[in-house]
Design brief:
7 strands, single chain, 3 helices, 130 residues, alpha+beta
Length: 130
């Protein structure tokens, strides 16, 4: 099984170029809740900025299992693990800076929180991992 640390140069480019992804969490009825997200990877940790109280936040607070998946043409990546919600001002500022570097400066959002996902399992297409 691959790890974030074993990304090749192509893999690092794939997770840093402008690509959206999906975040899958477990909904309140036990079904899978999937939403489009922007995400970043820094020091092996996946971060997603969002609004406090959103469905994805409520889902993670109830069940920490989450998966981020990105696809572009024949390349794909799936990162599964345990997620937590961070509300600390410094954690949010760090995640916003990472997001701005990959995508764009996000709008001001006083209710912003961070979904912090620690990968347990990483899968992807050939060429993304050493």
């Amino acid at each position: 099984m691959a790890s974030i640390d074993s990304l090749t140069e192509d893999g690092r480019r794939f997770v840093s170029d402008y690509h959206l992804a999906t975040l899958s969490t477990i909904g309140h009825t036990g079904g899978i809740h999937v939403v489009a997200v922007g995400y970043t990877i820094d020091e092996g940790i996946v971060r997603i900025i969002t609004s406090d109280g959103s469905q994805k936040v409520r889902n993670i607070e109830r069940d920490a299992r989450a998966t981020v998946a990105q696809v572009s043409g024949p390349q794909w990546l799936s990162i599964a693990g345990s997620a937590v919600i961070e509300r600390d001002v410094d954690a949010v500022a760090h995640a916003v800076a990472l997001y701005a570097r990959r995508y764009r400066q996000p709008r001001v959002n006083p209710r912003r929180v961070v979904i912090r996902l620690v990968p347990d399992r990483v899968l992807g297409s050939a060429g993304l991992f050493a």
